[in-house]
Amino acid sequence: MSNDPAIQPVGSFGEGGPLLLRPTRHGDARGWFVERFSDARFRAEVFDTVFAQDNRSFSARIGTVRGLHFQRSPFAQGKLIDIAAGAIFDAMVDLREGSPTYGHSAHVTIDAASGAQVWVPAGFAHGFCTLQPDTIVDYKVTARYAPETEGGLRWDDPALSIPWPDCADPETLTEKDRRWPGLADVAPMTATA
Ligand SMILES: Cc1cn([C@H]2C[C@H](O)[C@@H](COP(=O)(O)OP(=O)(O)O[C@H]3O[C@H](C)C(=O)[C@H](O)[C@H]3O)O2)c(=O)[nH]c1=O
């Protein structure tokens, strides 16, 4: 486990779990510059993988809930999440087959102001709730979009004990996100990226 303050674990999943990353912002009189992603650095310091796709979602309303989603093998996705505008309460659940922390959840708040990022490995269900209006979430994923392999977990399943923020608004859920099963009814994932 890294003792680099720029890389810290999210939750208690042990080696190979989600991470909070703080890329260095180089400030000067004009503002700042940051390398949001470096292939070589990510492979060396976080996880040796390649990314297949860059995604961006815009959520107009505060309290918008998206998730909890995942893709199954062979399109299980690791996700590197970065906030271009606004802020999110980011949540993840371990669904890795055989994991000693199977079914455990964790959460972290990240925002555009801090530039912090979250790495969510393949094998985790992922979702977020926006904490500001007009929030833009950018994220790199390690496998292409494969809707035929998509699965989900009910965002407010009591078995997950995710302490969603008070602003979370069920009215913002898509029909799809209203229908996901609870943890007891989801099969574990083989986390191949
Ligand atoms: C994920 C995805 C979606 N789409 C299309 C499919 C729909 O027409 C539209 C919205 O899709 P969806 O409602 O699945 O979008 P989100 O609810 O933001 O889904 C995401 O939400 C949580 C937070 C995640 O972690 C996943 O990355 C992702 O599932 O974009 C694509 O064309 N490509 C894609 O990779």
From TrEMBL:
Pathway: Carbohydrate biosynthesis; dTDP-L-rhamnose biosynthesis
Active-site residues per Swiss-Prot or TrEMBL entry: H69, Y139
Keywords assigned: Isomerase
Database matches in Pfam families: dTDP_sugar_isom (PF00908)
Catalytic activity annotation: dTDP-4-dehydro-6-deoxy-alpha-D-glucose = dTDP-4-dehydro-beta-L-rhamnose
GO cellular component, one term: cytosol
Family to which this protein belongs: Belongs to the dTDP-4-dehydrorhamnose 3,5-epimerase family.
GO MF term list: dTDP-4-dehydrorhamnose 3,5-epimerase activity
Marked site (Participates in a stacking interaction with the thymidine ring of dTDP-4-oxo-6-deoxyglucose) residue numbers: Y145
Gene that encodes the chain: rfbC
Top-level lineage group: Bacteria
Quaternary structure and partners: Homodimer.
Keyword Isomerase: yes
Transmembrane segments: none
Record-listed E.C. numbers: 5.1.3.13
Gene Ontology biological-process annotations: dTDP-rhamnose biosynthetic process; polysaccharide biosynthetic process
EC class of the enzyme, as a word: isomerase
Protein name (Swiss-Prot/TrEMBL): dTDP-4-dehydrorhamnose 3,5-epimerase
Taxonomic source organism: Pontivivens ytuae
Biological role stated in the UniProt entry: Catalyzes the epimerization of the C3' and C5'positions of dTDP-6-deoxy-D-xylo-4-hexulose, forming dTDP-6-deoxy-L-lyxo-4-hexulose.
